[in-house]
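Lab meeting notes turned into a lecture example. A postdoc, R.K., suggested we walk through two folding results consecutively so the class can see how the record format repeats. The first protein's sequence and structure tokens come next.
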Amino acid sequence: LKNKFDKKYLNILKKHNTQIVNIYAGHLHSEYWQTVYGIPLIGTLALNELNGNNAGVKLIEYNHDSGEINNFKTYAVNFINGMARWSLLYGFPKDYNTKDSLSTYIENAPSDKKESRVLEYRRVYNGDSQKYPQPIANDKYWPVYFCFSKYVESDNFNNCIKLLKLKLK
């Protein structure tokens, strides 16, 4: 949000948003969602445990004609006695009980940190790992994550945080 390249990058995304199906990022070692000019940006767990997270992978299915993401499934692994045990962490849209597309769901996601969809999202955010506590697990930081899911321009992002903090007091 503060990098000199952000504006150029965002302009490219805005110009080509009808041709980009998804932005997939995994560097943060955690689950996250965002929309960038209507383009779903999703992250997933890393394929290692170097930062303490449970390793994970995300499988995405999308409609080749419309470009809409139909669903995705996130799998996490626990290493027990040197053996990898993979399990389904959650799937979208099934585990979120919605018929909305991912973009629509993100756009309409609730801001109330006590709402069941928010609690579920926060639970799976770090792959259900208790040894990798993300700030999202702390109510104090929820406004940052909520606003991140909606806004990429720094002014809009900062205004969202201010408004949400006032609302949640």
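The second example is placed directly after the first for contrast:
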Amino acid sequence: MAGLSPLTDRAAVLKAIVEYDAVGRDAFLERYGFGRAKWWYLLHEGKQYDSKAIIGAAMGYQMGTPLTAVDFKGGEASAVRKLQSLGFRVTRSKITDESSMLPEEVPASYPEGNRRTVTVNRAERSAEARQACIEMHGTACTVCGIEFGEVYGLQFTGLIHVHHLAPLAGQTDLRQVDPQTDLCPVCPNCHAVIHHGGANRTLEEVERCLKR
């Protein structure tokens, strides 16, 4: 079976996702002959799925014969484009609690030169909230509209910051976050402008600063 063009049914992908959830990740991957994804993950309803394996199974649901890892043609680029064409969100790397801790969100004062230990208190970011924000709002910057994959190439698909409209800095208590209303995707440049000088500018303020 050549290429992924025969896969046109979004429902077939959803059936593959249901099967993945039912049997578990390792059993699903073994069934279709795929290894764990190194980069590309399909985001759906708060979960992350190995994208190529999902496509392989989905081909079986639509065409009657699944696509195994041996038969898979076109590589990761074709997998990403296919899933996106069917209306799914794809990110280039797995979203974890560690990946949600953006280095530019720590205090901007760093010792340089001699090695020393620095202890910093910082509010933890939720990987689940970040994933939900991306799934709901996409990966285009809310302010300037940049989509990294379209501008810099496939390997940067899904690269985006998630901005807390009400900043976590200085918070001492746990807070419930609604990804729909409390979070939004912004590019690193716009994120830096939002917080430049210790401020928390609104999206509208930053948009007015843009030189178009």
